[in-house]
Design goal:
Radius of gyration: 16 Å
GO cellular component, one term: mitochondrion
Binding site for K(+): 63, 124, 160
Catalytic activity: (6R)-NADPHX = (6S)-NADPHX; (6R)-NADHX = (6S)-NADHX
Keywords: Cytoplasm, Isomerase, Metal-binding, Mitochondrion, NAD, NADP, Nucleotide-binding, Potassium
Largest sheet: 8 strands, mixed
Number of domains: 1
Oligomer: single chain
Strand order of the largest sheet: 3-2-1-4-5-6-7-8
Order of helices and strands: HHEHEHEHEHEEEHEH
CATH architecture: 3-Layer(aba) Sandwich
CATH class: Alpha Beta
EC number: 5.1.99.6
Length: 235
């Protein structure tokens, strides 16, 4: 059976169920598992011998939180992450994630243009599946810079500025080299033809059956699975 692509509404509903009393997860747990998946995906495709310097672009929401967690794990994996986080939130969860990165002496930068010249890879953790509407400042400038860069870009869950269901409307966004879908691919991923990994090994079998996700088995102790060829076979 084919792996299911999620609408924005179903993706939000699954997250709500996971964090409900019946689901038992906290946002902290899901963010930690998602960020670990992202870091492992990066390490599988972009070896640190050639892509050690990773610029992590974080947005103000949960996608940005995933990026902050991924930065911490990438540091422990032997990479040299730098974080661009232009619009920080005052929520305690995010402040703790920042502190964790600061304790590892991971640099935070305000100069995106300079960092795009000094890094080997961009991790796009700006907008997640809750994104809708137009890209507003300061991220309109950020998206434009990412459209112009020649660095490979790995996007977390959806490529930032893409519509969650309709994709890259009007070419307002960039096309990443790699997409790391979390839980299950979103509908916009049907327009993506690059390297595609799936992470988020935390969905209970009952919930998977309820929504017909048809998640392929993760090998061994892996937190991610390469679904590039699997999706091509089903198209």
């Amino acid at each position: 059976m084919a792996l299911k692509y999620l609408t924005q509404k179903i993706a939000q509903t699954i997250d709500e169920e996971l964090m409900s009393q019946a689901g038992g997860f906290s946002i902290d747990q899901l963010m930690e598992l998602a960020g670990l998946s992202v870091a492992q995906a990066v390490s599988k495709i972009y070896d640190k011998s050639n892509f050690s310097r990773v610029l992590i672009c974080c947005g103000p929401g949960n996608n940005g939180g995933d990026g902050l967690v991924a930065a911490r794990h990438l540091f422990h994996f032997g990479y040299k992450p730098n974080i661009f986080y232009p619009k920080r939130t005052k929520k305690e969860l995010y402040q703790r994630l920042v502190t964790q990165c600061e304790n590892l002496k991971i640099p935070f930068t305000d100069d995106l243009s300079e960092q795009l010249l000094q890094n080997d890879l961009v991790l796009d953790a700006i907008f997640g599946f809750s994104f809708s509407g137009e890209v507003k400042a300061p991220f309109d400038h950020v998206i434009q810079k990412l459209k112009e860069t020649r660095l490979p870009i790995a996007s977390v869950d959806i490529p930032s500025a893409w519509d969650v269901e309709k994709g890259n409307i009007g070419n307002r966004g960039f096309t990443p080299s790699m997409l790391i879908s979390l839980t299950a691919p979103k509908l916009c991923a049907k327009q993506f033809n690059g390297t595609h990994l799936l992470g988020g090994r935390f969905v209970p079998p009952e919930l998977e059956r309820k929504y017909g996700l048809n998640i392929p088995p993760y090998p061994g102790t892996e937190q991610v699975i390469d679904i590039t060829n699997l999706l091509k076979e089903k198209l």
